[in-house]
Design brief:
The protein has about 750 residues and is of the alpha/beta class. The protein is built from 22 helices and nine strands. The protein folds into two domains: about 240 residues, no CATH class; about 400 residues, Cytosolic phospholipase A2 catalytic domain, CATH 3.40.1090. About 50% of the residues lie in helices and about 5% in strands. Helix 2 packs parallel to helix 5 and helix 3 crosses helix 5. The longest helix is centred in the first third of the chain and has 31 residues. The termini are far apart. About 0% of the residues have low confidence.
Length: about 750
């Protein structure tokens, strides 16, 4: 027989033995993963979010780079250690049980796997946080340096601290027995030395694991219940703990409690987790535990049905327009009218909107010879906002409604103090504990995470002396004697409906849309569904229900003659279009028609606030030939390769749905621009538009519901650097101030 053929013949049994060995070890590994599947699932989801979700990258940057608080960093270290120790201890106990279905878990050759797999999973938690921070830094368009007010390495030790924590945990897992025995020799009366065996005896029942594991699981269950109750009662108390720390604490509870359920079910051969998932799915499908009701008044909970609505005493929009025109436009032709549209974008949009309006207001008042009503606020007729833009407008209106001793000069600092609160941690806490518990309960019993967010807004506003957030939205536009109040601009907060896909325009007036006047194109008039007592915070929330952070809200028309449909579901207004320009354009049309009926001529001064650093300036792009009295930032060109515009057939429809939302916003902005009529001969008599935009800066500005102080510094830097506020204020004063 030739040598090569003989070698091939001899190697075939070896190859078969090799593959049997590989298959055997693979089956052994899969069996060992089953008892710890909850921890693996939690870590897998956390890893996917860390790598693929941009909003998560912003959380890592805030926690490890932009947040100056050392206390929150220590809380992050403590919570990551807690999660790691919980995963390790739960997995270690899971391997001590004997499972009749998985005899491979008793094999001696896998002893090292049972020892090291819990250790690796536990030490992976702080390591994953560190990896998330590195990935977030890599995603920055300008790199990590230079940062605002600090060097690149000033807080680099925070990532090193997480690496050291991971290493210390591995050392502890390996040497804990020796450390215990050393302590036992020094304290023989209090501690009992441990044996030299690598693991404890295997048992058949959970209660036979020993006193310490049983106490551990009992404490975990009790603390889980206590945490759920406390979060349900006061979610705003978690303002300041940090979103990442909150996620890690929830991870510790999930892995410990889930491991206990797995041990109980697997030991008896009962699919306990699968049964719970089926129960939750059935309750959700049958709408038997919907706790996402839209609150119609301050005392209403999100799990309650509203009581009968009172008599509608909201002012009429026509009366508001008449009172505003009579007060501002007497003997003025043309009469200047300020309008604002604020795009959505989470806390970034809220902060940018409040900052720009506050700075402009203060600059104008500094030019006034005597104190009085702020000039910008006096001629600001209406503002349309989406998502975070609505929160920024509500913050500005709240400061106008309840000014403090510093007056308009302190509005920017006041807005920053209010919006710099951590709104995300209370929302996540409710989602991970309260809302999660509600999913398994028949019936609706608990407030949802959306209510946790509004409570956080209300608590933060109270710290700045603003009590308007929990008050009825309509009361802000009515004096004590019941007459129309025009001290505040008319706020239009845009939401969207799920089934119909239409705009849901919320405002503080009686329904504007009637059979005789169709005010909103492809939109619903929110006042036809909303109670006259609906709080301002709930109105802002309805425009900012960006699923899944905030759930879709179920709204049942609370009126004697309900509209059709009588029940709608509300989501973030940005699903329809994110600019707010569509609604503002229709408000302009309504006001122009009313002014024409009264023989008055108007000139519109529109302030558009966008916050997406990747957005191009629509005025220069679409109407650069006209000499607009325009101030806008000129952002530097972004280096880097252009992304491929071709997507696979599986995800192409999803990309298209998201892209069309952005395109609708661009379309609405251009239509708003084309509705204005500048006077080329005399710009002081024509319409104008100012576009306040953000550029890609030196510091990351978050999109979620938490923002740090350095991020505010970046917003302020861009506003001062790109916009000549003093010059703009003088131009506004010349157009707004009455001629003596």
């Amino acid at each position: 027989m030739p040598m090569r053929a003989r070698d091939r013949t001899m190697s075939r049994p070896t190859v078969r033995r090799h593959w049997r060995r590989v298959i055997g070890w693979t089956a052994l590994l899969l069996d060992h993963l089953k008892p710890i599947r909850v921890s693996l699932l939690v870590l897998g989801i956390a890893s996917a979010v860390t790598i693929g979700v941009d909003q998560a990258a912003e959380l890592f940057l805030i926690a490890l780079w932009t947040d100056p608080s050392e206390g929150r960093y220590l809380a992050l270290l403590a919570s990551s250690a807690l999660a790691g120790l919980s995963i390790w201890y739960a997995a270690r106990n899971a391997y001590r049980l004997r499972y009749p279905r998985w005899p491979a878990l008793q094999e001696r050759r896998a002893a090292m796997l049972r020892d090291w797999l819990p250790r690796v999973l536990g030490a992976a938690v702080p390591l994953l946080v560190c990896v998330g921070f590195v990935i977030a830094l890599a995603k920055l368009p300008h790199g990590a340096c230079p940062a605002v007010g600090q060097s690149c390495g000033e807080r680099g030790w925070r990532a090193i601290g997480l690496l050291l924590e991971s290493a210390v945990m591995v050392v502890f897992f390996v040497t804990r027995r020796r450390l215990w025995n050393v302590a036992a020799r020094r304290l023989p009366r209090h501690l009992t030395p441990l044996g030299r065996t690598p693991g404890e005896a295997r048992v058949w029942r959970v209660r036979d694991l020993g006193r310490a594991p049983c106490v551990f699981y009992a404490v975990v269950v009790v603390l889980n219940i206590v945490a759920t109750v406390l979060i349900a009662v006061r979610p705003e108390a978690l303002d300041g703990i940090g979103p990442l720390a909150m996620l890690l604490i929830a991870e510790a509870f999930y892995c410990s409690t889930g491991s206990l359920l797995c041990m109980v079910g697997d030991r008896r051969g009962v699919p306990l987790l699968s049964s719970l998932l089926l129960l939750a799915a059935a309750l959700h499908w049958l709408h038997l535990n919907d706790n996402h009701k839209v609150r119609q008044y301050a005392d209403m909970a999100t799990y309650q049905q509203p009581t009968a609505a009172p008599v509608d005493n909201r002012v009429r929009f026509d009366d508001y327009m008449d009172a505003w025109l009579d007060d501002r436009c007497a003997q003025r032709d043309p009469c200047p009218v300020l309008l604002v549209s604020a795009e959505g974008g989470g806390i970034r949009s809220a902060a940018w909107t409040a900052l720009v309006l506050s700075r402009l207001t203060a600059q104008l008042d500094a030019l006034q010879p005597q104190a009085g009503e702020p000039l910008l606020a006096r001629y600001l007729f209406a503002a349309s906002g989406v998502s975070g833009g609505g929160l920024g407008l509500a913050t500005y209106a709240g400061m106008l409604h309840e000014p403090d001793a510093a007056g308009t000069a302190g509005m920017a600092a006041r807005a920053q103090a209010m919006l710099s609160h951590d709104f995300l941690a209370p929302t996540l806490a409710n989602a991970l504990f309260v809302d999660f518990t509600q999913r398994w309960l028949p019936g609706a019993w608990l407030n949802d995470r959306a209510r946790a967010l509004t409570r956080a807004w209300e608590a933060a506003a109270r710290t700045q002396g603003m009590t308007s957030f929990p008050q009825p939205f309509a009361d802000l536009y009515r004096d004590a004697d019941g007459k129309v109040s025009t001290r505040l601009p008319a706020l239009f907060i845009n939401s969207a409906t799920v089934t119909e896909g239409k705009r849901f325009v919320q405002h503080p007036f009686q329904p504007i849309a009637t059979p005789q006047r169709q005010a909103w194109t492809a939109g619903f008039d929110g006042s036809s569904w909303l109670d006259p007592r609906v709080p301002l915070s709930e109105v802002v929330l309805n425009g900012a229900r960006f699923t899944y952070i905030n759930p879709a809200g179920t709204l049942l028309a609370n009126a004697a003659n309900p509209p059709v449909p009588a029940r709608v579901q509300l989501v973030d207004g940005g699903y329809f279009e994110n600019s707010g320009a569509t609604t503002l354009l229709e408000v302009m049309r309504l006001l122009r028609e009313r002014a024409t009926q009264r023989g008055k001529t108007l000139r519109f001064l529109v302030i558009h606030l966008s916050n997406d650093p990747q957005m191009t300036d629509f005025v220069v792009q679409h109407d650069a030939q006209k000499p607009w009295p325009l101030y806008t930032a000129v952002c530097p060109a972004e280096p880097g390769r252009v992304r491929d515009s071709v997507r696979g057939e599986a995800i192409a429809p999803l990309y298209a749905l998201l892209a069309t939302r952005v395109a609708r916003g661009e379309y609405a902005r251009v239509q708003l621009l084309r509705a204005l009529h500048p006077d080329l001969a005399n710009p002081m008599r024509g319409d104008s538009l100012w576009h306040f935009r953000l550029c890609p800066g030196d510091y990351p500005i978050p999109l979620g519901w938490t923002i740090s102080e350095p991020a505010f510094a970046e917003l302020d830097r861009q506003l001062r650097q790109h916009y000549p506020l003093a010059t703009m204020a003088r131009a506004l004063q010349a157009q707004l101030a009455p001629t003596p």
